[in-house]
Design goal:
Helices cover 0% and strands 71% of the residues. It is mainly β. A hairpin with a 7-residue loop joins β19 and β20.
């Protein structure tokens, strides 16, 4: 166990990461030809593939050993920000100018294909813990903030063009094909607090988790939070894990409205399982007296106000 001093301790870690990838490919085929008394099958083609992939992972504060902050009004905060940008450009072009004279028979085919794929992966975690964080006495604050941004752009262009001139004794058959496919994929995940046990001790403490970005955002994931004594505030946004209010008048804050969630009673004091598949919430809660939801934050719900299924 790593104890800190008895004063007001502050542990703040912030990490930022950025990844960028760019890929481009181009192919072109051009033919200008005169055919005199010839019979020819003439295939022309151009193909271009471009694939760009950028990935980054950021953890603000990583904790693998127990932390005990003793008796002061302490602050533990982890901030993780990850940004990934991928851009792919593919261009394919076929052009032909054909002239046929003197009993020529020309069969010309032109095919142009372009494929572009851009993949941006970004993962950000505010606090990532595989151990225990104990905040001791006094009013302590634990905060995990994560932001994950992914930007992917895929541009594909393909063209096939043939022009021909022939005299009355000759024939020219033309066939063109052009296909362009661009695929952009963003995989972004932001988690405010991931893993670990949080023992908030005897003060009226605050634990806050926030996750923002363009993909999956979870306030907490696989956590165990024990409020201990004191009137604690669990501002968790969304996520998975177990929250034990303990003694005192405790408050749980989640995103959205109360109607977004389903509530199932548990065989525990003030026990409830709170679920919302839309924001990946599956929390097992006990000993929490009050609830708030961000979309209707002017209302404080009691345990008895929850609509159980």
């Amino acid at each position: 166990m790593k104890p800190t001093n008895n004063g007001s301790d502050i542990i703040i870690e912030e990490q930022n990461s950025f990844a960028q990838a760019t890929a481009s490919a181009s192919a072109a085929s051009f033919l200008e030809q005169l055919f005199d008394n010839q019979t020819v099958d003439l295939p022309l083609s151009a193909s271009a593939d471009a694939i760009a992939s950028a990935s980054t992972t950021t953890i603000g504060l990583y904790n693998s050993t127990p932390i005990k902050t003793a008796n002061g009004a302490d602050v533990i905060k982890g901030i993780g920000k990850a940004e990934s940008i991928a851009r792919a450009i593919a261009s394919a072009k076929v052009e032909a100018i054909i002239e046929a004279i003197n009993n020529s028979n020309i069969d010309v085919s032109a095919a142009a294909t372009a494929f572009a794929k851009a993949v941006a992966n970004a993962t950000a975690v505010g606090i990532d813990s595989s151990s225990t964080i104990s905040t001791g006495n006094a009013k302590d604050i634990v905060v995990g903030e994560a932001t994950a941004i992914g930007i992917a752009e895929a541009i594909a262009e393909a063209s096939a063009n043939i022009s021909s001139i022939n005299d009355e004794s000759s024939t020219v058959k033309l066939d063109t094909f052009a296909e362009a496919l661009g695929t952009a994929v963003v995989n972004a995940e932001a988690i405010g607090i991931r893993g670990g046990k949080y023992d908030l001790g005897n003060g009226s403490d605050i634990i806050r988790a926030s996750a923002t970005g363009v993909g999956l955002n979870m306030g907490v994931k696989d956590v165990l939070i024990d409020g201990g004594r004191g009137s604690d505030t669990f501002d968790l946004q969304s996520g998975t894990g177990e929250v034990i209010g303990g003694k005192g008048n405790d408050l749980l804050v989640l995103e959205g409205s109360m109607t977004d969630y389903t509530f199932t009673t548990l065989d525990l004091k003030l026990g409830v399982n709170i679920q919302d598949s839309n924001n990946n919430t599956d929390l097992f809660v006990s000993g929490v007296e009050e609830f708030k939801f961000v979309a209707d934050s002017d209302i404080t719900y009691k345990y008895a106000d929850l609509v159980f299924t």
